[in-house]
Structures are given as structure tokens and as C-alpha cells.
Amino acid sequence: MSDGWVAVGDEDEAELDLSADDPSAAGVDDGGVNDDGVDDDGIDGVEDLGLEAALAAARGEFGDFDSALAELTQPGEGEPGLPVLAVVGRPNVGKSTLVNRIIGRREAVVEDVPGVTRDRVTYEAEWNSKRFMVIDTGGWDLKVRGLQAQIAAQAERAVSDADAVVFVVDARVGATDTDEAVVKVLRRSGKPVLLVANKVDDRATEIEATKLWSLGLGEPLPVSALHGHGAGDLMDDIVKMLPEVGHGTSREGGPRRVALLGRPNVGKSSLLNALAGSERVVVDDVAGTTVDPVDELITLDDRLWWFVDTAGIRRRSKDASGHEYYATLRTQGALDRAEVAIVLIDASAVLSEQDVRIISMVNESGRALVLAFNKWDLSDEDRRIYLEREIDRDLAQVAWAPRVNISARTKRHMDRLTPALEAALAGWETRISTGRLNQFFTELTQAHPHPLRGGKQPRILFAAQVSVGPPTFALFTTGFLEAGYRRFIERRLREDFGFAGTPIRIVMRVREKRSRR
């Protein structure tokens, strides 16, 4: 057998790096106070002797293994006061492409079709050691109705929330009546505005861009967001225009990060608007309205949370095409940056294979999980009986996840979301002291030893919780533990220690005894 770490539970799980310089980081220290608030010197005699015996057995088999244990750090404080830059303009003038150029990565969804971006989408950027927030917006047109009017309203709100504005115009088309109408709104806002003439790919277009002086916003800056022409001058001008302190808050650390996931049209955007108390994102009966992940800082029960509304996942990313494919990738990225995910399920409809797939995606990502059954007001008693049967049949693998029955439309039971989120995060960050853990495994293996296989019985010599978020346990064993026994271990860990709302990871270091020569 290999001496390396073996990740258990996910076929695609990457090998876990557990290297650390401090052996006490994993709770194998001989003194001090552990994460349970208990003095390690005060562990009862049986537990203390059990830990010493387990350490001796593991070191005898593996040598000095302490440096292989590590733990994750907790989130720090957020960075308030970042300047905020809004990027606005008519549909299909290249705003999202320009945003990707500003932030230095392909984050905003881009397609050669007008109207792909619909909400205010926030990113973080840095230039010459100055950090700031960038808001990408949908196409701004003042003479529209319905969904397009909501998109335009979001762009106008972005201007009011920003400290400065980049107004993007298509240099090949020139100034239009819509551009002139938007300029009037920008002047009324009183915010500093940088006029950018985009799609300047040759000398002729650069000359045409000079006609944009007529908008009265000063000298137009010719750039090509697609090819990067003029990008350096653009970033320099942006940094000069932004104040030292703004209204933005960094997403790094600080408030806990919550991702809203689910199939299209299950009410993710409606839930975000209900929590925010305003029309933060565009909502429409047409499925797939949200394309880019939308961040919003929301206060619930006197506590700040970062909520991220994501695009509805219709199918596997490999089966999607166009902007739907990239929206699915952005949704996965939003989940990776989150700490807890709320998966919304339409309580009035039959639980689908896609619902189960999305839940599995959260489970595999190692994020804390809350199940929110939305549109509860539309389900009758008969439907609720069938729903319970579907949950027992299809969601048995996440029976540990807190459940909340809500209605984003009527705001029914919205107050139950915060306790569910806090319970899931508490389970996600639960840590068991090494002494208690080894006492648990000693009692467990004595009462229920691993079955004999080939005349041999694998033994667990030592166990330590190497990280939280999600809780990850390292087992030093004399043989490979079968999947059924690992599921039994996970079930007993939940029974004894809780871990509500979080997946559990088990990694093993297996070493067979060397045969005698």
C-alpha cells in the first residue's frame, strides 16, 4: 500500500496537503487549552492514557508524523472603505469585456449578444497597490419597459452606490440619443465620470472617437477592451479619479459568505430581494434571468452577511453552451468562495434530478449546507406529504442538513434562515480535541471492530482532526478501511459530536506491516 494520503468519500477529491511546521496545530500538544475550552492538562485519566497509547502506537508504526497534521485558519476582518467604480453604458458596448480587463481576469460573462449582463455585479480589482471595487451593469437604455427597464434601473442604482463612474461608448457607432440621455443622468449624480471610447482597434476608429467630445464629459479615452489597447492609461486614470476611502467592503474575510443556488426560477433572486428589503436584483417569470453572480451585503439579526445570488443551473456544465456555460462556471466559482450554501428547492414541484445534482455539488465542494424549500405557500397538504417521501428517498445522503420551509414572495418563515445558517456554520467549524477523538475511536473499534479481510483486521492507531471547514479527520491505520466502515464512522461521529449542516471528510494514511525476511 502507498504511504501517501488517501482522500476518502469523493472519487474526484484531490489529495489533501497536510504539511505543517507546528505539530501542536492539530491539537497534539501536551498542554494548553484546546478548541473545546478544556485545559489539555485536565483531560481525565482514561482519555489521557488513551491518547498517549495512541501516540505511541502511531509513532512506532509511522515514526515522527506530527508535521503532517495541520488546521485551517479562521476568517479575518473585512477591509471596509474600498472605493467603488461603476461601469455603465448602452447594451453591447463592451462593458463586461472592459470589466474583465480592469480586474485582470475573465470573470464577467461575455457573449456577442446584447443584454447578457442584467444585474449589478461586483468584483475586486487592484492597480499600483490601490484596491477598489468594480460594479458591472446591464445595458442602460431609458426608453424601455419590462425586463429591460429593470436592468436599466439597476444600472442607475449602481451609479448612486459608486464613488466614480466609467461611461463606455462604442467608438464605431458614436454618440447616440441614448448616450446623451445617460450623460444627463450622470451629471445629476455629481459623481466624477471618465468617458471611455471602446472598440478602438485601428487609427481610423481612434480619429472617430474624438467626436465624442460632443457629450461634454471631457476628452474621450480610446481603448480596446478586447485587445488591451490603452488599458494601462485607463487604469492610471481610474486610480487618479477614485478617492482614498470609499463605500465598498472587501469580501475577503469579514462577514460570512452565503451562496444561493438552485435550478432556474426557484426564487433565488426573489429571496435575495426579500432579505435585502429592496429590488437588488432583476426578477422575472422567465427562467434564467440571472446570469452573473450578484453580491449583496445584508444585515440579518444585527449581523452582516455576504449573500451571492447565482445563475440557475439547468444542466451539467459540459452540456451547456454560450453564456449559459460560462454562467455555470461562475456559479461554481461563487460556491468555491462561499462558506455556506443555501440550496433553494421548489416545494410546489417534484424534486428533480437536477436538485439532487446541485446538492451533491455543494457536498463535494465541502461547504456547509442549508436546504430551503421555497414557494411553500403554493404547496397544499397532499403535495407536502409527497415531498416528505421524495426527501426521504432522494436526499438521505444529506439528512444532516438543516431544512427551512419558506416563501420569498410572502416572506413566510424568513426569520428561520439565520438560525439555520448559524447552525450549519457551527457544525462546519466544530473541532474535536485529539484526546476526545482517540478515546472515541478506542471505544468504537472495541465495540465494532473492522471486519476481517483476507485474515487481517485493519486497526486505527491514531486519529486527529486536521482541519475545519469542513471537518476533516486523519486516521493512521494498519490497513485500508472499507467504504461501509467509513460511513459507519461518519454516522457515529455525527451521533456523538453533532456536525449539523456540514459534510465530513476522512483521510487515511495506510501502512501495511512489513513482511519478515
Secondary-structure blueprint:
Layout: E1 5-8, H1 45-62, E2 80-82, E3 84-89, H2 95-103, E4 121-127, E5 130-136, H3 147-161, E6 164-170, H4 177-189, E7 193-198, H5 203-209, E8 221-222, H6 231-241, E9 248-249, E10 256-262, H7 268-276, E11 294-300, E12 303-309, H8 322-337, E13 340-346, H9 353-365, E14 368-374, H10 381-394, E15 403-405, H11 417-428, H12 434-447, E16 460-467, E17 472-477, H13 483-497, E18 505-510
Parallel strand pairs: 3-5, 3-6, 6-7, 7-8, 10-12, 10-13, 13-14, 14-15, 17-18
Antiparallel strand pairs: 1-18, 2-9, 4-5, 11-12, 16-17
Helix pairs in contact: 1-12
Textual characterization of the structure:
One of its GO terms (biological process) is ribosome biogenesis. The chain is 32% helix and 20% strand. It has 517 residues and is of the alpha/beta class. The chain has 3 domains: 49-78 and 429-516, 2-Layer Sandwich (GMP Synthetase, Chain A, domain 3); 82-239, P-loop containing nucleotide triphosphate hydrolases (Rossmann fold), CATH 3.40.50.300; 255-427, 3-Layer(aba) Sandwich (Rossmann fold). The strands form 4 sheets. The chain has a 6-stranded mixed β-sheet with strand order 4-5-3-6-7-8, with helices on both faces. The protein has a 6-stranded mixed β-sheet with strand order 11-12-10-13-14-15, with helices on both faces. Strands 1-18-17-16 form a 4-stranded mixed β-sheet. α9 (353-365) links the parallel β13 (340-346) and β14 (368-374). α1 (45-62) crosses α12 (434-447). The chain is elongated and about 85 Å long. The chain starts with a strand and ends in a 7-residue tail after the last strand.
